[in-house]
Amino acid sequence: MNRKIVYGYVWEAGTHKQINEDSLFFRTVKTKNGSLLIGCICDGMGGIGNGETASGYAVEQLERWIFKEFIPTIRRSKSNAVIRGKGIRLFQKINRELFQHMKLKRIPLGTTASLLILYEGKGYVFHIGDSRIYRFHSIPLLKKAVHVKRLTKDHKKDDSTLTRCLGLNPKGEPDFFQFSILKGSCGFLLCSDGFYRNLEKEQLKCLSPKMLKDGKNIQKRLWEIAERMKKKGERDNLSALYIKLEP
What we know:
single chain; 6-stranded antiparallel β-sheet; 33% strand
């Protein structure tokens, strides 16, 4: 991918949280075929220390897998079936290890995980839980117009109980899909539920790629949203990562 990349993030504890149990990371890797972008957000659960441990461990394992498995695999094969199989086995391994640790220590331990990989004009998503990934695409000729699409599906019932996650639930299989990256200015938002819970879809339009000039601008806009959510009484952690691709 040979496009200019800018990004920003917010990582803020909620009004009733002593620490932020979310974990996130963003990396770019230079390859002979252009840059490979990696974004991930994990929302830990289990109380002070436990949630942070679960989300941190998941992020560490996912990042290691990118370099050890994904990059060598995609150099040999572009098959979605091969990529999906390797990713699902990784998520199941993380889930099994967290679940076993939870039973051994008799402590609640779990995390969501939403992983986004952008490479050679394609996007790959592995997702479990209720963190989200949104895609933003600026509409040509209209300065402020933007199309916003939620790429992931929440794994929960009754707007509260998770039906799938890593650790707390024996079922650790993620959703997987691949998509083509749109031409023109586009952006991707990865966020935990504390960030989006009280956010109307119309309010997301302030994250139009055309309105975000650089990393500082992105950072400022994300912090403004986080502060607005806290004023609305959001108790949970507010974490978000925004990646912009310029033409």
